[in-house]
Amino acid sequence: MAYKIVFIFLKLLSRLPFWCLHRISDIFYFLLYYLIRYRKKVIISNLNIAFPDHSIKENKKIARKFTRHFADFIIESLKTLSISEKELQERYIYQNLDLVQEKIKTGKSLMIITGHAANWEWVFYLNQVLKIVTWTAYTRLSNPVFDKLMVINRERYGFKVVPSKKVANFFVKLEKEGTQFVNCLMSDQSPPANYKYRALFLGQDVPFYIGPEAYAKKYDLPLFYASVKKVARSKYTVEFIPVTMNPRETEEGWISSEYIRLMEKDIRCAPEYYLWSHRRFKHVKPSTS
Asked: CA 121, CA 80: separation in Å to the nearest integer?
C-alpha cells in the first residue's frame, strides 16, 4: 500500500515539464547545500583528496556545483517515471552508436563500462536503441519501497536489472541460452578494505572492483567505455570509446587501468559532475613517504 501511494505521487510529479522540475531542483539544491548540508564534509574531503593542488576555495566551489547538479540528477531520475522516448532521444544523445552497432552485427555480446558521472541512469533506454538484451547489475536499496521504484524506473523500456549477488549466475544463464546481450557495468564504488585488488584512482591507492575485467575476459566480451557529458541542464551526450575488442589478449589489470584512466579524464574535465557524495577514499593506503 505504501509503495502504491508513493508511486502514484511521484508519477504525477514526474509529469511536470522540465522547466517546472528545474525550479523544484533549484529549491532542492538550496535545501541540500545550505540547510541540510547533505554529506558536505564527505564531499569536501573527497575533493581535497582527489585535488590536493586546489585551494580550499576551489574545492568548495566544485562542491557547490556538484550539489546543484546532484539536485538536477534526482529530478531527472524522478522524470524517468514518465519521460517519453522522444524526449529521451533529445536529451540523451548517443554520438557514435554505429561503433557499438557494427560490433553487435558480428553476433558478439558486448560490455559497456562507465562511471558515476553526469547521468548514468538514463542508459536504461539503450536497449530500445540497440534492439538487443541489455542489462546491468544493481545493489538493492535498504528501503523496499524505493528499491522497487528504482527497478521499475530502470526496466521501464525493457532494460534488465540484476541484483549484484546474482550477476554470475545470470551470465551463465545467458551463455547457456545462447543469448546475445550488452552488459553495462560500473565499478567505481568503494570495495571493502581487504578487497584483493588495489589501484591508483585519482592519485590514491584504493581497493578497486575488477568485476568488469574478470567478466569481459571470462566471456570474451568486446569492451567500450561510455563517456557521458552534461552539455546543458538535463541534456547529455554519450560517446562510446573502444577499450579492447580482444579482452583475453590483454595483460592482467590492463582493462581496469584503462577504465580508470578514461574515467579520470572525464572527472578532471568536469569534476562537478562526478558522484562525490559517496566515501570513495575511505580505504586509502597511507603514504610511506
From this structure: 9
State the pairing for strand pair 235-244/92-94: parallel
Q: Is residue 81 part of a domain?
A: yes
**Could you please report the per-residue DSSP string of 14-29?**
HTS-HHHHHHHHHHHH
Name residue 234's amino acid. Answer: S
**Distance in angstroms (rounded) separating the CA atoms of residues 39 and 100:** 37
DSSP reduced 3-state for 178? coil
Rounded to whole angstroms, the Cα distance separating 197 from 191 reads 9
* Structural domain count of the chain: 1
Q: How many angstroms separate the first and last alpha carbons of the chain?
A: 58
Q: Which helix (H) or strand (E) holds 113?
A: strand 110-113
In a domain, 286, yes or no: no
Q: Which amino acid is at 136?
A: T
Angle (deg, nearest 10), helices 2-14 and 144-154: 40
Radius of gyration in angstroms for the set of CA atoms belonging to the chain, rounded to a whole number: 19
- Total Cβ atoms within 10 A of residue 238: 22
CB 256 within 8 A of CB 105: no
Give tens-digit pLDDT for 152-197: 777 777 789 898 899 999 999 999 999 999 999 998 988 888 898 9
The C-alpha cell at 26 is: 533549484
Residue with cell 552497432: 101
Classify the phi-psi angles of 98: left when phi > 0, otherwise alpha if psi is within -120 to 50, otherwise beta.
Answer: alpha
Residue 75's domain comprises: 2-273
**Domain assignment of residue 287, yes or no:** no
Q: 131: left (phi > 0), else alpha (psi -120 to 50), else beta? A: left
Kindly state whether residue 124 falls inside one of the protein's structural domains: yes
Q: What is the value of pTM for the model shown?
A: 0.93
Query: Where on the phi/psi map is residue 186: left (φ > 0), alpha (ψ -120 to 50), or beta?
Result: beta
